[in-house]
Amino acid sequence: MTPDDERFLLRAIELANEARAGGNPPFGSLLVGPDGDVLAEDRNTSVTESDITAHPELKLARWAGRELDPATAAGTTMYTSCQPCGMCMGAIERSFLGRVVYALSTEQLTALKPPAAAPGVRLEGPASPEQGRVPVEGYYTSASQP
């Protein structure tokens, strides 16, 4: 970790403190461009916006997907207070961000939280692979896909 990495990571933790002070879960993130400038920053707003997807990592990945070309996005670094969840990692990958630096791992976060009260979701499938493949087949090899 460089001194800049440490400085940006501390800012992500400050954003997490701001989120908590505002009544939201304590998570914060910022996106730094290839030249070292802060491009955007955000904090969790899932409670105040009544939106379970209002994670800062997801919001920044969506911003990057709209505002940055893939080459620029690949040169960015996201600094975040905790390791991104699966939902956020999917968005980070799809927005082509180059690097993620986090302060607290998922395992460390889990150790600080009470056990999940929600039952697990039962996932079933593939149930109709032949029919399901029809709209997808060829999409990822065509020039028209984003």
Question: What attributes characterize this protein structure?
Answer:
146 residues; alpha+beta; 4-stranded mixed beta sheet; 6 helices; globular
Structural summary, described in words:
The two termini are 34 Å apart. The chain contains six helices and four strands, in the order αββααβαβαα. The protein is α+β, with helices and mostly antiparallel strands. 38% of the residues lie in helices and 16% in strands. It has a four-stranded mixed sheet with strand order 2-1-3-4, sandwiched between helices. The protein has helices at residues 3-21, 56-67, 70-74, 86-94, 106-112, 129-132; strands spanning 28-32, 38-43, 77-82, 99-104. This is tRNA-specific adenosine deaminase.
Give a summary of the structure in a few sentences.
The chain has about 150 residues and is α+β, with helices and mostly antiparallel strands.
The helix content is: 25-40%
Describe the largest sheet: 4 strands, mixed
Report the radius of gyration as a whole number of Å. Answer: 18 Å
Q: Could you say which overall geometry the principal axes of the C-alpha atoms support?
A: globular
**SSE string, helix = H, strand = E?**
HEEHHEHEHH
Low-pLDDT parts are none
Compute the number of helices.
6
Strand order of the largest sheet: 2-1-3-4
Report the end-to-end length measured between terminal Cα atoms.
34 Å
Structural class: alpha+beta
Number of E strands: 4
Give the oligomer, counting copies of the same chain as homo and different chains as hetero.
single chain
- pLDDT average, as an integer? 94
The proportion of residues in beta strands is 15-25%
Protein name: tRNA-specific adenosine deaminase
Organism: Nonomuraea cavernae
GO molecular function: catalytic activity
Pfam families: dCMP_cyt_deam_1 (PF00383)
